Amino acid sequence: MQWETVIGLEVHVQLATRSKIFSGASTAFGAEPNTQACAVDLGLPGVLPVLNEAAVAMAVKFGLAIHAEIPEVSVFDRKNYFYPDLPKGYQTSQMYQPIVGAGVVEITLEDGTTKPIRVHHAHLEEDAGKSLHELFSSGKGHGMTGIDLNRAGTPLLEIVSEPDMRSAKEAAAYLKAIHSIVTYLGISDGNMAEGSMRCDVNVSVRPKGQEAFGTRAEIKNVNSFRFVERAIAFEVERQIELLEDGGKVVQETRLFDPERDETRSMRTKEEANDYRYFPCPDLLPVVLDKAYIDHLRDNLPELPAEKRARFENELGLSAYDASVLSATREMADYFDEVREVCGDAKQAANWVQGELAGALNRENLAIKDSPVSARQLGELVARVLDDTINGKAAKQVFQALWNGQGASADDIIEAQGLKQVTDTGAIEAMIDQVIADSPAQVAQYRDAEPDKRGKMIGYFVGQVMKASRGTANPQQVNELLKQKLDALC
Amino acid sequence: MHDKTLAELTRSLDAGDFSSRELTQHLLGRIDRLDGELNSFITVTHEQALAAADAADAARAAGKAGTLTGLPLALKDIFCTQDVKTTAGSRMLDSFIAPYDATVVEKLKAAGTVSLGKTNMDEFAMGSSNENSHYGPVKNPWDFTAVPGGSSGGSAAAVAAGLVPAAIGTDTGGSIRQPAAFCGITGLKPTYGRVSRYGMIAYASSLDQAGPMARSAEDCALLLNAMAGHDLRDSTCVQRGVPDYTEELGTALSGLKIGLPSEYFGDGLDPQVEAAVREAIKVFESLGASVREVSLPHTHYAIPAYYVIAPAEASSNLSRYDGVRFGHRCANPVDLIDLYKRSRAEGFGDEVKRRILIGTHTLSEGFFDAYYKKAQQVRRLIRQDFLDAFEEVDVLMGPASPTPAFDLGANKDPVQMYLQDIYTIAINLAGIPGMSVPAGFVGKRPVGLQILGSHFTESRLLNVAHQFQLATDWHRQRPALAEENA
């Protein structure tokens, strides 16, 4: 039987606010356990939450970016359950009236085609703390669990998709699109390794052609693009095998184990918590007026899809170049600056994807950590375009900039004497000298069939370039040599 | 000096009749002598009180005394206080010391008041008799066989017994007004959102409100001046200017329109309580007020709605007491579930457990719409009843409680106990302010007159009560304590 996979994603994006969603404690990653948890985060008796406006603005920006409706009123609810790293015994979330309504995210597949994935809604909530089992696995305190509440109260935007994805690849593309949008908006650092984006995956299978959905399993703890594909691949195979053996998929929550590359049952529907949601009486409903939303809309940055279209349509880049250069905001911003400084989109694209990307890859650096700034690279490309230096010298200048040997391309060109020689007289003098010094080669050239001479000219070009220490304009050298040698024939 | 009002004490302190230290020492002495039997305090802070009194005396000497500088008071043990334990009347928090002061505590400290300690209360403010305290019941100073009311029973009894001139209470369904009535003192529950709830241990967040309990309406006004105002730490605390609540005191009542809700004078009202209340209303008529009957048609839904909403919020608010980070933890838990179960089973008393169970049930899947949602709809109707009534009249009056203080141990049935709050509970659901002022006695036991106004009309309520107190001396009556004479 042919099976079709149906996938929906719940993506938790950690918002890049400086303080927590309901307290003034810092959200910085990596501090000593429990040093960034104030009385509110600890859930001490008597404390009250106060909503961080920055988190609201970030959520609304996301909503606007996916063309979602932004309801005038949204409400925080309490999700009640007991867990040691959940200090209050409830998580403040949004169950009934989320801040972002239905929207659409466009994904780009590997073959370049696009597909819209509907977002059901996105809501704000607070993160829980962390339970640390590993710290106490041996020695004193064996079997105990530590609680770190630094993360408790960190703002999360949970983005819930419709079950619109039909393959692991589509799911990964959707996750990448979300990643791209939130980093473009600057509302999250998108750092998956530090847990800034986490993902729960709902997977079911159904016979191809069947309309009704199969029973789904929810896979938790899927925290990288790669894991999403692997977890889905495993789960789809598990479900198909189960069904083909005459079994039934049970609705349950499963945990992805990246080390064993498998999913394991955590709890079935019968064991599921009743979270007893109700509106949080400590927080007022969030009421957003049109002016507030309009202001955020007017100040939205250019988003990935718009940027890709502009690169392709206005700058005349190929679809491939446009897609690579718009993949992240850092990349796009870098490219845009190089382009503006040098004035040539195609050349800028070549340099960013060629020399720069190669160097970054070699040293495993992110573009934001590039030792060559976009302005420096732009100025370098400009010197190539205005014939100040030739391509060979340009690579030398780039390497020098990379190594920090000068503040600008011009400084390096000046210091290393790389300025291209275009003075015909000077080039002619060098050519005459080379011809005079190479009687044997000149004789060979003269004796050769005219149609073989083209290849033989390379030797003379090399000698002239060498004599000019690479600075002679290669095109001029070529033309002048040909004239002079042909005159000898 | 233990019979004086705050206003009188300030005049004495200003005149140099005695110092704040002398006053504080005198009251601490009375507490030491009398409170063993009365049980109105959970914690008495002798040293901190004397240090605060000395600071107040120094401020006065330097000419920097405000209206409350050097005045002793007591705090219901529901307000978090830095360095002094805060129990909420529960074994769960028997050893809990908050690392911060509640906003109300901070404000009262800044005003120069001298806290003598933390008063007894029903556990987590759940109760109408103060019999639900882990620290034992409080006795009514007027009659030691009677309850002082609840949940702010310790605060009311301490003021009535002359242990302290004023105390701060909280009111979720009548917890300031009913004990004030039972103990013959004056208590005010402000409009919801008037006073910050930050640092006040939550029972039912949408209903809880702190307020003053004292010997006169004027004293309540002085205290509310210090307590009220917006707090950035409490989103439900309104951004609205704070008037000087003493400013309207002295306004004549001629032309005041008083409404008597017919539902507050029906079945179940003790005839002697009714008689006292009707006498009091005659006093207002003699002061130039007009009286008419009004209707609050949804009154009989108030108790059921309250006992859905308040336990629902409580069940969630009390989840944090899980034995993990603070509060009572059972000995030798074998696993996490055991830790939760035994810590909570041991830490909470019966009434708290009952309300957690009710709240957990009403919020459960399949019941939420039938209970919680319906109760919220009823709540809106109850609020509308009051808004409609205040279209016609300026204030509403009636009894604060259907009976005078009942005997200790008399109300064993929880539902009987819940019905005690029939006249006070709707006020919290509507969010409006309400007061109880002494208006007579049934035998030895005081009767409270309840005065209600629309949202943010505390100034008017306080003046209405003040005018009554200028015309009567019920609020000046003091119980004769046997130990005092010994």
Q: Look at the structure and give the mean pLDDT of chain B.
A: 97
Major pleated sheet of chain B: 11 strands, mixed
For CATH, the homologous superfamily of the domain at 6-249 and 455-485 in chain B is named as Amidase signature (AS) domain
Give the strand line-up of the largest sheet of chain B: 1-3-2-4-6-5-10-11-9-7-8
* Mean pLDDT rating of chain A: 92
- Sketch the topology of chain B as an H/E string, one letter per element: HHEHEHEHEHEEHEHEHHHHEHHEEHH
What's the assembly state of these chains? heterodimer
Protein name (chain B): Glutamyl-tRNA(Gln) amidotransferase subunit A
InterPro entries (chain B): Amidase, Amidase_CS, Amidase_dom, AS_sf, GatA
Keywords (chain B): ATP-binding, Ligase, Nucleotide-binding, Protein biosynthesis
Pfam families (chain B): Amidase
Features:
heterodimer, A: 489 residues, alpha+beta, Arc Repressor Mutant, subunit A, 3 domains, eight-stranded mixed β-sheet, 16 helices, 41% helix, B: 486 residues, alpha/beta, Amidase signature (AS) enzymes, eleven-stranded mixed β-sheet, 11 strands, 39% helix, globular
Structural account:
- The complex is a heterodimer of chains A (489) and B (486).
- Chain A is α+β, with helices and mostly antiparallel strands.
- Chain A has three domains: 3-292, no CATH class; 302-416, no CATH class; 424-488, Arc Repressor Mutant, subunit A.
- Chain A has 16 helices and 15 strands.
- Chain A has helices at residues 39-42, 53-65, 168-185, 225-244, 290-298, 304-313, 319-325, 329-342, 345-363, 374-385, 391-402, 409-416, 424-437, 439-447, 450-467, 474-488, and strands spanning 3-14, 73-74, 77-80, 90-93, 103-108, 114-126, 130-132, 146-148, 155-161, 197-207, 217-222, 252-257, 262-268, 278-279, 286-287.
- Chain A has an eight-stranded mixed sheet. A three-stranded antiparallel sheet of chain A has the order 4-3-14, with no helix packed on it.
- The mean pLDDT of chain A is 92.
- Chain B is built from 16 helices and eleven strands.
- Chain B has helices spanning 6-15, 20-38, 46-61, 103-110, 153-160, 177-183, 217-227, 271-286, 302-317, 336-347, 350-362, 369-392, 414-419, 425-430, 458-471, 482-485, and strands at residues 41-44, 72-76, 114-119, 167-171, 186-189, 209-214, 257-261, 290-294, 395-399, 434-442, 445-452.
- The longest helix of chain B is centred in the C-terminal third of the chain and has 24 residues, at 369-392.
- The model of chain B has no long low-confidence stretch (mean pLDDT 97).
- Chain A binds chain B through residues 39, 42-51, 78, 80, 82, 84, 87-90, 147, 274, 276-278, 281-284, and chain B through 79-80, 86, 88, 93, 96, 98-100, 102, 197-202, 204-206, 232-236, 312-313, 315-316, 318-320, 322, 324-326, 336, 340, 360, 363-365, 368, 372.
